[in-house]
Amino acid sequence: MRNVSNFRSTLSRAAKGAPTGLLAAFTALAVAEPVAALVRPAAGPVTVVGGSVIDRTPAPVKDFAIRAFGENDKLVLQLGILVLLALFAVALGVLALHHRIAGAAGVLLFGVLGAASALSRPDSAGAGDALPSLAGAVAGAAVLCFLAGKAARPDSPSAVGGSGGGWSRRGFLTAAAATAAAATGAGALGRSLSGQRGQGAVASRNALTLPAPASPAPAVPAGAQLEVAGISPFTTPVRDFYRVDTALAVPRIDAGAWRLRIHGKGVAQPRTYALDDLLARPLIERDITLTCVSNEVGGSYLGNARWLGVPLADLLREAGVRAPSRGGTADQLVARSVDGMTLGSPVEDLMDGRDAILALGMNGEPLPFDHGFPVRMVVPGLYGYVSACKWIEDIELTTFDAYDPYWVTRKWARRAPIKTQSRIDTPRPFARPAAGTVVVAGVAWAQRRGITRVEVRIDDGPWQDADLAAQDTVDTWRQWSYRWNAAPGGHTITVRATDGTAAVQTEQRARTAPDGASGRHSVFVTVA
Q1: pTM
Q2: What is the 3-state secondary structure (H, E, C) of 462-520?
Q3: Each residue of 499-510: pLDDT tens digit?
Q4: Is the peptide bond before 427 cis (omega within 30 degrees of 0)?
């Protein structure tokens, strides 16, 4: 009987403590919303804690998250933070029934941790960034003490557990409902204020008219897009273009307020540009395929788009920068984003004649916010983590010896030219095509070198030449197809590419870290 009584007591404490703690946590997050909206939306507690988690996550774990969850990795992280917060909230709620001060102290401790995370972020705007976490924690601690008092207070015979020793269900529910309503109102106010702050950025993007390029992109050759069902389109629609970054809250920047600074080693004339300054310059338009270093063999983290922007080399030369091969003292360009991200690119590569640009447009429209509005870097031939800085606001010339950017401090390579790769788009893995002619097709890429040959092998048979689509430029991917006379049974299809230097895609498998995956893509199908 004693065990049963103890069990019932435990359940009773959980029934009282769980909603108490959860409402306190909800209140803390809700109150932090309007404070963050007034201070800086990116200083919200979930955002800053999530950013700190990302910064401290080992590269293999990041890779796993990208492989397992794709572009939903940030959503999964945020949900994970909320789940852990809920578990701690329940524990603090139970603790507060007997020790309200200890429970409140626990809530305040979480606020201090959130504040510390906010101040440690590379994009921290100062002490004000700590306010959302601290204000939310104070509100949460107050609610915890208030509701714990209601839950623990003896009341009338209508109280749970009988007269004189229970807790007032009616009183607690009334207090809890009022608390939930107030917190919901605070959260709604915060969302509304944040939305209003972002309206200026949205309006500035909607009002932006991109000028015609002084140097238009050459017309895509007829035949660059194969008429094969299931193959990736030659030009990737904006809605389908991959997004891999560390930003939990996508920056929304007012185009009129945006500025770009160019300074550092070897810069004879530091410059600051507004967006209108860039729009007034001669713009170039180019088709360029971008590739993420997190792209596994056969992965989807690459896409081809038509970019409009300012040649980066022109801006660097006007600032007095020279390539190292011409006597320049800086060999690394560090690009900084408004969210504090830093990427390092070789100056030599940026000034060797390739179409490295500060992009303003993508597929005929201003950059989407997800892809870097108002300005981002696009550099053909380099993986994104050493070149594709989104929401860029600062360019510093330095050396590789003097500074390690974000990913290099996490053991990724300093230099990362894109490797020669190919992918089978159709048939899909484990497909069941009918016997007879099966069209195998996909894409191959080796930016700056181009693709000159693609071969397909069925099982352990000989390599057979695939038909190549027309090549646009060496900076874009190239489609290919192979007509296979498929016999019934299980078969493995493998592809390999040869680039413009006659280098054949290696069969040596390597993971994405530290400088990009390698190996040959294969799919298994069962022919009916």
Answers
A1: 0.86
A2: CCEECEECCCCCCCCCEEEEEEEEECCEEEEEEEEEEECCCCECCCCCECCCCCCCECC
A3: 999 999 999 999
A4: yes
